[in-house]
Amino acid sequence: MTEGASPRPVRTARVRRARSTTESLLSIVLALEAFLVFFITLVVYGLDQLPPEVAFIGGATFVLLLVLASGVLRYPAGIWFGWVLQAALLATGILNPVLYVVAAVFVGIWIFCFIRGRQIERQKASFLATQPPSTETPKENNA
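Now predict its structure.
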């Protein structure tokens, strides 16, 4: 080290916020639905059911909303936003009746993940409530 130079500050790792099980499951569903909407956009364009501008701008907007929703699932309003997007996904059946079936499957997955995520969180909270408090201090990982 040269004279007069100060030592480099030690960087500590930022602690990431723990995501709930429900949030994790629903964000996976929203990501899958974003891919689905991309393919729906291609189908609607390919079958000339909408003008290209409307199909692609509408599809891109819907995909963007799905990605945005996965980022705000930590808030109760984010969950409600996800439910609104599920209704919008079902509404794509107006463009092509087959999409009612496809959307219903994905909405069913959303509902299952919502219910099961909440069940897992309740079971985890119940389990942790029965455990004695930990007296160990967390060890740093210097890897």
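Helices lie at 21-46, 52-71, 76-91, 98-130.
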